[in-house]
Structures are given as C-alpha cells and as structure tokens.
Amino acid sequence: EEWGCATLSTMPYDDTDIDSWGNESAWREAPYHRVYETYLMDFNETNPDSTIEMIKSLINGGTPVTFTLDAGQFSNGLSDNFIISSAEYDSSTYNHAQCIVGYDDSIAEDGDVGAFRVVNSWGDYYLMDGGYYWLTYETLKEIGFAIGDYCLHLCFVEDRIDYEPDLIATWEFNPAPTRMDDIITLGVGPHDVPLDMITPLYESDLNLFPEFMALDISEFQSYYDLNNDVLFYLELGSSNTPGIISSFLIERYISGVLQEITPESPDVPSTTPGYVIGTFMNLDHDVKVDLEVP
C-alpha cells in the first residue's frame, strides 16, 4: 500500500533474478499504482458456485484475484496441455500464490466445463503458455474444499484509480545497506519532534537495498501547505551491512506535473544508521541547525 507497484512492462519477469527490487524506472512508476484497500474473499463451501460467480464478476470489472495452490500439481495437469482439471489435481496442501486474470465458460477438460485464466510467476518455464494456464472452476472448488477458506486466500485489491502523487521522496545509496526489518522512516518536521512519520513495510532479507528508491509521501502535503519551508527527513536504522545515503530529494507535483525539487540534502553523503534532512528552501549550516532544534 505504501510503495505501490511497477507494471510488468517496466519491470519484466526475470526467472534468473528473484532478489532485485527494480531499477529507477520501476521505482518511479510504482507510486502511481498504490493499493487503496485489500480484501479477502470467502470461499462459500455451502454454495461454491457463488464464489466462482463472484470471481468472474471481479474479472469482468478488470480486477484480478489471487489464490493459493500446490505447485507440485502442475506436472499432473500441464503435461498434456495448458489446462488443469479436477481429475488431474490431487492435493490438500498449498505452497504457491497465483493470479486469476480471465475466464472462459467454454473451456472443457476431463468432464469439467469452464475455467479461469491464471498467470504464474515463472514465465515460459515449466509447461506454461507464456506464463499462463487454465484452471477449471471445479479444480478451484476442489482446492477450496481441501485447504479451507483461510488457506485458499482469495484476495483482490482496490486500486487508487488515476492516482497522482503530490510529493515523492527519492533517495540513493552508494553503497546500499542490508534490507533489515523496519529500518526506513520518512518524516516531516524536526527529527526529534516530527509532525508525522511513515515507516513503509517490506520483506527483509540479507540482500542489499537497491541503489535508488522512491516513496509517495503525499500524506505530508498538508504540512507543506501550511509551511512551504517545512523540513523532511529520511532515517535509516542499523543493519548487518551499513551503507551510505548519497542523495535525498523531495519532488512536488500538481496534477502529475513536476513543479519543483528540493536542493540536495546538506547531510549527504551520510553513513547509516543515521538520518538526513531536506527542505524546499535553501539551507546554510546555521539555518539548518536552528531549524532542527525544537
């Protein structure tokens, strides 16, 4: 919800790279595609056909739906064609997320009629049709009955339609620190007594952060409206491998058009852990010290 998401055209699937978080183009596109809300759907065991119809209704409205299955069943169903039927699927476990992007009531396989168009994250690898295959309605019901409502994780998101950020924070590392839990914080106001803060969520691991990152901080726009000289800051906590913040900028937009960019932070380069500040006014050292003191 905080970071947004780049499109496949900007960040194509690469089965040789499961660790990267995208280049600058992907990070700059992501703030325009933020989730407004996430919803979990019930699998109706009393009337499973109603669940099938609900998914089809969402697809008709342009909303994809995710679910889970046992990826070990791909070899059972996809070895002869790109359709997995309920006769071919035989598992009561789950280990892999998938995304339903379409459906066809005329698809038939092993007595099942009707199927969902599913996109996997493996591209052409492993019997996929360019990354896609068909899962019959009966197979989805079978999975739902086998693993239960909670484990099936039928999920969809509500987009921020035609969203355009007002403020975007960008920063660069050279070198980048390790991706530890919750060590990135963006704030507005003096660091010691902030007016507001954002600590965006992400999955930590032992890889390094990308060299370029961006975050929509439009939640801070009201503070800028009250005081155009308000301070912003980026704080990085401790990590296994420290890094250096080499740039920190705030970009201001109106209706998608860039209006201005803050001068480069006077604090960079700065070794992590630590924080750097930025503001739309020009700072000399004395002014910076005065503003940071509550």
TrEMBL record:
Residue ranges of domain Peptidase C1A papain C-terminal in the record: 38-142
Fetch the SUPFAM superfamilies from UniProt: Cysteine proteinases (SSF54001)
Question: What does the record list as GO biological process?
Answer: proteolysis
GO molecular function term, any single one? cysteine-type peptidase activity
The protein here is known as Peptidase C1A papain C-terminal domain-containing protein
